[in-house]
Amino acid sequence: MAEEHEAQLIFRGSAERRTAAAYKALSSEAARTIEGTSVSISMRDGALFLSFKADSVPALRALMNSYLRWLVMIERALDVVEGEGL
Question: pTM for the whole thing?
């Protein structure tokens, strides 16, 4: 990567089991490599830690938007599965 831009995100689901589900769902995606970007993901103390790196601000924004949308989708899917929403 030429110039590197970074951002971090800490996510706590409404319950630790939801955070664990998000970790499991996103881990395989984080393992994928896209030229000029990288994502690391870990879980500790009931929280999901995501670290994003990209060689441009637009790439960083797009990368973070994808993960934020996936987190929202995971929470909504768990709401439906657990009978809390539709």
Answer: 0.85
